[in-house]
Give the backbone structure.
Amino acid sequence: MDIQEFIHGVEGLRSNLLKQARHYLNDADDAEDAVQETLVKLWVVRDRVAEASKMRNMAAVVCRNVSLNMLRDKRQTVSIDGAWEVASHANPEIQLEEREGRQRLQRNIQALTDKQRAMLRMRNVENMQYADIAKIMGTSESSVRGMISKARMALVQLMKGTEL
């Protein structure tokens, strides 16, 4: 699909995608960002989409996923190093529950070994690839995958309040 075919195909989709994104995001600027990201993703895979009807269906799915990802990113995020983005809620009970949950999670993260915390931080906060972590740790990539899996399981068990 060349650029003219792509432009012609997405012209009719743009308004529907914008409505869909507004439905999820409730913000015109965020919806516009979601549509732009959707169109970029469609452009990247344009060669795999032969028919306009398939592009319409794919665009709807991609727009939904992009919008949901944006919503998830806006929510409170927890990082291994203690940096927090706090979601604002008007309900004091929800704020209290969230604060207690963050404190409990932070205590449980601190209960992990230094190596487990470091690996979780590299993978989940710094978004490092397994191969890069393996080089830093001086081990194999499969070993890193196993250690990170064990660290995650240990954190889940700590959050559940059970012993390993």
The helical segments are 3-25, 28-44, 52-74, 92-111, 114-125, 130-137, 141-160. The first helix runs from residue 3 to 25. The beta strands are 77-78, 84-85.
